[in-house]
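ingest -> validate -> predict -> emit
validate: passed (alphabet ok, no gaps, 193 aa)
predict: started
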Amino acid sequence: MIRFALDGLCGAEHPLAAHCKRCARCCLNASLIAFLLALSAAALEAKSLTLSAEPGHFNASTLGAPASSVALAGTLRMVALSRAKAWPPAAYIGIQQGSNRNNSVQVLAIRNREIDDYLVVGYRLVVDGKEVEVASLEDVPLTATVRVSIVFRGGVAKISVNGSTPVELQTPFREVAPYVSVSSGRAEFTIEP
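emit:
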């Protein structure tokens, strides 16, 4: 662009043209670098999503393809809780083998009873649709944001909640996919890249 504007009259090059051509290359390089940085920042931006489920129902979203090694970190927060007794409201971040959660490791925040003014945060290992291991870790306010980290490698899932010391679970799983889910309410999730 600058070349056409500065190339001289009668075929002679303007004295500043060489300097301006170098500047044009520098500006082009700087623009390209800025564009690539913006593109990579967008790729590294946390993914936010909100899921809703009617009372007594689940709504899940798979976040990636099955892999033998998965690192999942993010937050969950319940923003609406159903008062129906059909199924307690809960938000889940987990990993699953196969197309459903019958073989999974789940970190969940659940309101067990309608009168509870807190959520119980815990985890469970589900194998062939049966809870093999279940543990409660802490109680948090109903609208608390819960930070979750799950690292899966070699059949072992390491879980950390709100920065706690990781808990290790030996699983029979070989490949898992990360997912989020909600039951009987609405939850917000933020998943880190």
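Helices lie at 2-6, 17-44.
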